Amino acid sequence: MWAKPITLENEHVRLELTDHSHAADLAEAAARDNLYKVWYTIIPAPEAIGVEIDRRLGLMESGWMVPFTVIRKTDQKAVGMTTWMNIDHTQKRLEIGHTWYSTAVQRTAINTAAKLLLLTQAFDALDAIAVEFRTHSMNRQSRLGIERLGAKLDGVMRSHMTMPNGTLRDTAVYSIIASEWPTAKANLEWQLTKPRP
Questions:
Q1: How far apart are CA 18 and CA 28, in angstroms?
Q2: Starting from the edge strand earliest in sequence, which strands make up the sheet with 77-88, in order?
Q3: DSSP secondary-structure letter at 167?
Q4: What's the pLDDT score for residue 38?
């Protein structure tokens, strides 16, 4: 196995292998502001968090995913989920996806800090050749966040998948390749240290 479960942390967040000890906090995070009802993304309903944890752990057993829970360091609360997924252990490529955060931590340093950890481990420790990101083409908040990471748009897969509400999703695909990582890393580190309004 090339990409294996690991705990990653910095001053803002700790990324732990997802397990059922995180379920209560994650259910609270998904319920806040009815986050799970947003139509253009897939966030588990509070009562389905346990099933989602089992699903992600099952995908880890197949080697396809490493699921992380995002822990906010200031109070040790689980505030969201993220993964390495679509892992190609031979080609050393992976996707960072199935990410969601409580509305309480959106537009804070949490996402930047978590992505810096995941990308640093992928490129600097695992020697990845590329890391991919995918999102609904209509999810402007997600797309802007991915672009702020330094990822470039590879293209849009039209009618890529059917969403739970029956609509068809056009999927915007982004990536950071190894040669771009030093610049992207410098930008992420700067974003975490610059003054915030």
A1: 16
A2: 8-9, 13-17, 65-72, 77-88, 93-101, 130-136, 168-177, 152-162
A3: P
A4: 87
d(CA 126, CA 93): 10
Backbone angles phi, psi at 100, to 5 degrees: -150, 150
pTM recorded for the entire structure: 0.94
Angle at which helix 109-120 crosses helix 181-193, to 10 degrees, equals 150
Please tell me the distance from the alpha carbon of residue 117 to that of residue 14, in angstroms, as a whole number: 9
Q: How many other β-carbons are positioned within 10 Å of the β-carbon of residue 169? A: 21
Residue range 100-159, pLDDT digits in tens:
999 999 989 999 999 999 999 999 999 999 999 999 999 999 999 999 999 999 999 999
Name the domain count of the chain: 1
Specify the CATH number for the domain of residue 123: 3.40.630.30
Specify if 75 maps to a domain.
Answer: yes
Angle at 188 between CA 173 and CA 57, to 5 degrees: 55
